[in-house]
Write a structure and sequence with these properties.
The complex is a heterodimer of chains A (107) and B (121).
Chain A: E1 4-7, E2 10-13, E3 19-25, E4 33-38, E5 45-49, E6 53-54, E7 62-67, E8 70-75, E9 85-90, E10 97-98, E11 102-106
Parallel strand pairs in A: 2-11
Antiparallel strand pairs in A: 1-3, 3-8, 4-5, 4-9, 5-6, 7-8, 9-10, 9-11
Chain B: E1 3-7, E2 11-12, E3 18-25, E4 33-39, E5 45-51, E6 57-59, E7 67-72, E8 77-82, E9 91-98, E10 108-111, E11 115-119
Parallel strand pairs in B: 2-11
Antiparallel strand pairs in B: 1-3, 3-8, 4-5, 4-9, 5-6, 7-8, 9-10, 9-11
The chains are: A mainly beta (107), B mainly beta (121).
């Protein structure tokens, strides 16, 4: 199975900060990565797929990048509603796997 | 708009079968794969498997002997069946639409709200 490893596992940031979350795959995944945001008690929400394609309706302050085994999700100016847990997911090959998540907390 | 809604029992006894239904509105089940994903308490997300209306499915290897996913496009529903459950199967179960192919799978663009299932006697 392809393992997805987040870094960091959690971070504290302030409104307006630029935040970058990393995800490393245990093998190359050919840009087949998606990012989700999950708030407590809610289902995950798709933010980005195919490494850098923003899902419809997602604010442009979110962006994705990377290649090979290393991928990132960046929030350019953190907003109060962005405090949540973020997960990466690879769909290069089954089984589809998720990272363990990065929790973004208020500083 | 596309909506998914899980239903089923919230409590299942050990060794019994967990059966969940996902009702989909706003889109036909044809031409997509439909997934079940679970989240163990306080933990990350685990893909269980995908199914589609031709009957094809793919499952996580460690669950394959116990799981089946069926798609009924006439009712716009798909279901999960997990046999011989134990406490380790206690989780929030989500249904979702998979935008991928049979070979690769894809990202999940629509999710249900999730249903908490506890395995306990």
């Amino acid at each position: 199975d392809i393992e997805m490893t987040h870094s960091p596992s959690s971070l504290s940031a302030s409104v307006g900060d630029r935040v970058t979350i990393g995800c490393r795959a245990s093998q190359g995944i050919g840009n087949s990565v998606a990012w989700y945001q999950q708030k407590p008690g809610k289902a995950p929400k798709l933010l980005v797929f195919a490494t850098s394609t923003l899902e419809s309706g997602v604010p442009s302050r979110f962006s994705g990048g990377g290649s090979g085994t290393n991928y990132t999700l960046t929030i350019s100016r953190l907003q109060p509603e962005d405090f949540a847990t973020y997960y990466c997911q690879q769909y290069y090959t089954p089984p589809l796997t998720f990272g363990q998540g990065t929790k973004v907390e208020i500083k | 708009q596309v909506q998914l809604q899980e239903s089923g029992p919230g409590l299942v006894k050990p060794s019994e079968t967990l059966s969940l239904m996902c009702t989909v509105s706003g889109v036909s089940l044809s031409n997509y794969y439909w997934a079940w994903i679970r989240q163990l308490p306080g933990k990350g997300l685990e893909w269980i498997g995908d199914g589609e209306d031709s009957g094809r499915g793919k499952y996580k290897a460690s669950l394959r002997s116990r799981v089946s996913i069926s798609v009924d496009k006439s009712k716009n529903q798909f279901s999960l069946r997990l046999t011989s459950v134990s406490a380790a199967d206690s989780a929030i179960y989500y249904c979702a639409r998979d935008q991928g192919t049979f070979i690769r799978g894809g990202h999940f663009d629509y999710w249900g709200q999730g249903i908490l299932v506890t395995v306990s006697s």
